[in-house]
Amino acid sequence: MKYILLDLQAKDEGVAIIKINRPEVLNALNRETMSELSTAIDIVGTDNNIKVVIITGTGERSFCAGADIRYVVNIDPIEAEKYATFIYS
C-alpha cells in the first residue's frame, strides 16, 4: 500500500495499528487512500486475534484533515462520481 501503513507487530496482544501516511497534505483522503484504508480494515477484520484497531496519522500536525480538496477540485466528473460513490457506500 502506498498511503496506508498497517502495523501488525502487536497482533499477538490483539492490537493492530493503521496509519494514514500523507503528512504533506495533513493525511487528507483521496480515493486511493480511502481504498487502501478500506483494504487495511478488511485485512484486520479477518484476523480473529485482533481485538483493538488504532487508526492514526503520520506527521506532527494532523490525524486526518478529511477529504483532499486539492484532489477533488482537479478531477473529472467521472472520477468525482466514483469518489462520491466510494465515500457514501
Radius of gyration: 14 Å
| Overall SS class | alpha+beta
State which percent range the strand residues make up: 15-25%
Reported CATH architecture: Alpha-Beta Complex
**Can you tell me the residue ranges where pLDDT is under 50 for at least 5 consecutive residues?**
none
Assembly context of the chains: single chain
Distance between the termini: 21 Å
Keywords:
globular, alpha+beta, 2-enoyl-CoA Hydratase, Chain A, domain 1, 3 helices, 89 residues, 3-stranded mixed β-sheet
A few lines on this structure:
This protein is α+β, with helices and mostly antiparallel strands and 89 residues long.
Report on this structure.
With about 90 residues, the protein is an alpha+beta fold. The protein has a single domain (about 5-85), classed as 2-enoyl-CoA Hydratase, Chain A, domain 1 (Alpha-Beta Complex), CATH 3.90.226. The protein has three helices and three strands; from the N terminus they run E-E-H-E-H-H. The chain has helices at about 30-45, 70-75, 75-85, and strands at about 5, 15-20, 50-55. Strands 1-2-3 form a three-stranded mixed sheet, with helices on one face. It starts with a strand and ends with a helix. The mean pLDDT is about 90.
